[in-house]
Each structure stands twice: as structure tokens, then as C-alpha cells.
Amino acid sequence: MTTDWPAVADGEASARRPPPQGLGAQGLATAWHELGAKGWTILRGLPLPLLGRGTATAVLEYASAFGVPSDRDGGHPVRRVAPHPGHQGTTFSSRAGDAGLHTDSQYHRVPEDLVCLLVVRPATEGGLTRLLGAGDAVSALAAQPDAERILDALAAPSWRWQVPREFACGSAVAKERGYRGASVLPGDGTIRWRRDNISGSTPGRLRAVAPIVERCLDHAEGAVTLTLDAGDMVVVDNTRTLHGRTWFDDPRRLLLRVRLWRRP
Known about the structure:
The protein is of the alpha+beta class and 264 residues long. The protein has helices spanning 12-16, 25-38, 53-63, 134-142, 147-155, 165-168, 204-207, 210-218, and strands at 40-43, 68-69, 78-81, 99-102, 114-121, 129-133, 224-226, 233-237, 241-245, 254-261. Strands 1, 2, 3, 5, 8 and 10 form a 6-stranded antiparallel beta sheet that branches. Strands 4-9-6-7 form a 4-stranded antiparallel beta sheet.
């Protein structure tokens, strides 16, 4: 499935917003093309100022070339993705270890369209980025012995996810109380998934397939693993590409994340 993203090459996106310093028009055009074709892209070697306020400004500038930054969770568009010493948070961005393949903001009625992750300091070992497109996820699930039951469960619009406690205060969740749930695979080429915070209000017959789905996605043939260095930024279509990471325990690993809305 190919999404009709704005094409910098024909001038539409570049007319709306010029490329930020360090990201030329041709590089941006290539990134838009890759994002539309496969659901993710990597920008390598972006200039980074010294760690501090300038780094957050830089990642916002780079990310804003792709969409409108969202501050819906946490009140600020830039979030540090780094382990907090002695803290086992409910969100992947605040703890070490691996992260299963997932989409962001699955607990909202409408998740953000894109996720940008800029590497400031990679882990000395592990912490590699993993990606899996919705099409490859469906293919892997369809090959399971009980595929019909699994896919039927994932199409049911009754899945709900708990809000990580780091975001529960000050988030927009309170405004979504009428939200009754969503499909993991609604049948339009999109996907919404995260296993570890599935709400207990999700029907039991659906929760029963979650471990099978998680194992299947983790071993799907279409998954790719990326090695990212400082200054590399991956941009992921949050509606049709799952992302995760391999295990790590380096407390100095630091990424900066920005969630984005598509520009009108």
C-alpha cells in the first residue's frame, strides 16, 4: 500500500515549509518518497548541537519538515527516550530493555500520524530499532494455524489500551470518555497495536489472542532491524508501521521523540 504523501520533488511540500538547515531539498524529497512507499525513512548524520535546549530545538526543526508536532501527551512535543535510574515506568520511553513492536498513542481515539526518533547517544550494545509494516504483519498472522480466529479478533472494534501513568495527568484522555475502542486491523491497511498495556476492559476473547499476536509479530519475516548512530533520525508512519527495539541496558542511551500530525 502506498500513501499519497506530499512530494517535495514537485514543489508542494517545499512550498509549505522549506527544508531545515542540515536537511537539503533533495534529501527531504527522498525521505518523503520512502515514507510513502514503505512507511518509514531514515535521515542520516543530521547536525546536532550540544545536548541541552538546542538539541530539542534541532529535533523539532527536523521533525517539523514532516508534520505538525503534537504535545498532547506530557505537554511538550519533544520527549526524552532514555532509561530513568531505578524507574520501571509504564511506557517504553522511560525504561531500559527491549520494546515489543507497537504503534504510538494507541490508547487515543485518533493516534498521531507520524513518529520521529532522533538518536543523540546510541547504546553501547543493543537498543537497535525494529520496524514491521502492516502488510507484512497481516501476512505473518495469516500464516498462523488459527489465522481466521486471530484476524477476526483483531478486526473487532473493541480493543482498548491503558494510558501510561506518565501521561495520564494532563493528557487529552479525559476528553475521550465516549471512546469505546478500536480495531487492531480495521481492514484499510492501517494497524494499531501494543500488547503490554491492553486494558482489562477489552473483551476476554480478544485478549486471549494477544500473546499469539505478539509472538507472531516478533518473528515476522518482514521485520527489519536498523543500526542508528548519533544524528540519525527515523520517521515512521504510525498508522501502518510498527516500531520497537532490541534489548539494552546502557543508561546513557538517549533518543528524542516527536509525534506529528500530517499537515492539512
